[in-house]
Here is the input.
Amino acid sequence: MRTYLTTIGLEVHVQLKTASKMFCTNSAEYFGAQPNSHVCPVCLGLPGALPVANEKAIESVTRFALALNCRINKQSKFDRKNYFYPDLPKGYQISQFDLPIGEQGWLELDGKKIGITRVHLEEDTGKLIHANVNGEKVSLIDFNRSGVPLMEIVTEPDIESPEEARSFSKLIHQIARYLEVSNADMEKAGMRFDANVSIRPRGATKLGNKVEIKNINSFRFLEKALAYEIGRQVEILESGGKIIQETRGWVESKNVTVSQRTKETSPDYRYFPEPDLPPLVFEQAQIEALKNSLPELPAEKSKRFEEEYSLDKKYVRILTEDSNVAQWYEKALSLYSKEKSKILANWVVEELLRIIHDKNLIINGVPIEPAGLIELLTILDKGEINQTTARRVLVRMFETGNLPSRIVNEENLAQLSKSEDLESVVEEIIRENQKAVKDFKNGKEASIGFLVGQIMSKTKGQANPKTAETLVRKKIYGNQSGS
Ligand code: ADP
Ligand code: MG
Here is the structure.
């Protein structure tokens, strides 16, 4: 078999987070609402209704394009993309054709630049629901999503594997959330992909015919669909066939892509400038101001976390995945001490985020403030509680919303460091483990560890292991000298 090179270009759709829709005043927060409750003459495309562009959406796309190192077109405009489909009542979608808001950008992914062809703004369509009503198959239309602002990002054919496509789309998702232009909520189809893919024999300079896989709504499906499609194309070429340029769909239940339409019948959208909306004009000063307002982006933040806090790549990746987590960590660190950046990272990643993940929460929805965790770590540092107890206290902080000092007091969790506190437990353990005591007396040093372990477990981890060990030795030697 020959070896083949893979070429992928992505078209990513991201729903913008705006209060109202793109061209009317209906709320864009339609998810889960009663069907057709968020509609008006504008988004229903009734005759004579006039669109008014949403300024926030334009600003969001401009900021996003700037974050992707695009050139912003000083003159931009909206265009009509004409086609018929039941979820598009106007008979055209307002989009952008030859003058998108942003062009010619790039994004670095694991040290490699992926070219960004364009970033433009358009409106979403309604949604068809195929249902069974009284035993009859019907198609229903919900127009709540009609006219919700949608940003489209098109990449150059620079992506070389399904894994890279997945990482790239995750980066887009991350940036959309960093910039707060979108929740990019995958469960609510807030982000969708069309993936274009072709293969060519190694050594060939001309790209192969591409196949477009439409409407993929998860990172995992994107990777799976592309891997399947590449396999399918290799098989065709290997058996002497030709790849026809076509649009295919990913059928998750069967794990295959299926043909939807071929190039011969591909639609001619007859784009023309939207006559009901004025062109968009940007001043250089406006562009500069938006550029300066961009927050620190994932790449810069990771680099800074690595350098400033000397953290491992793995921890940096987890802490900077969500800018709210990064912010939480930095707030906590500012209340603690920079020298303890690693200890804190460990607590946030291994304990806090694990609980958040298990409980299906988000960082901004937890009952624990950075100051609460730092109070806990300070009590731990002072030796008032030990590691095991500290972990338990953290769980109780989640459950009660109380501060750690209060939990330690009310639940009697302070470390048992004084001999008096441990005397009776130690005696009990010695009584119950005569064999280990004998082994120890006979020189088996490891038995002391076993005995201390028993004490720890009996005290649910509250015993100070050092005090416990000293006490065990004292008791055993005491007995010995007494015998
Ligand atoms: P079309 O005119 O069919 O929409 P475009 O040139 O606009 O095609 O490209 C659409 C997407 O397909 C872009 O993301 C682009 O990078 C990608 N693309 C273009 N040619 C190829 C190819 N031969 N193989 C893989 N992807 C491609
Ligand atoms: Mg195109």
Summary: The pocket of adenosine-5'-diphosphate (ligand 1) is lined by residues 7-11, 154-157, 196-198, 207-208, 210 (CB under 6 Å). Residues 157 and 284 are 30 Å apart (CA to CA).
